[in-house]
Amino acid sequence: MKYLLIIFSLFSVNSFSQSEEIITTKDSLEYYLTKFKEISKSVAISKVKMMRVSYIYLDGSRIDIKRIGELRYEITTFHANGEAFSDLANKYTMDGNKSGDLGWFEEGMMVKDFETAIKDHKKGDIFTVDIPENKWYYVVLKTFDDIEKVKLIIKK
What we know:
Shape: elongated
Radius of gyration: 20 Å
Mean pLDDT: 86
Structural class: alpha+beta
Low-confidence stretches: 1-17
Number of strands: 7
């Protein structure tokens, strides 16, 4: 993905060295540029892709691959029959995220294979992701389509 990077030199009222990161929509860009114009030394702007999924983690260091396959089949069958993914996550996940919701995250924050699988699916898809070198196995529900946002890094 190509990033648009623009550096604005803005007049600074305060000379303390601090930065702030804001992720927003393109529509709000002008608002933040105006808001921070008087107190910023510079602003870096780039495009970011935001993603959101829910997941169920199955730990390959605790159970074997055969059992992982059985659990995945149960999970996807229950989900197809109307059981809420969050209820299935609460019951099956082998980590601390009992709701399964990963929240919004930007491209580049997760393991590459996990992100690639997410990008290959659309909202509502349920799919599996394997990271065998780490013994991480997932059932994933894509809860939102990917969206483009703008990231501002404001140096004060």
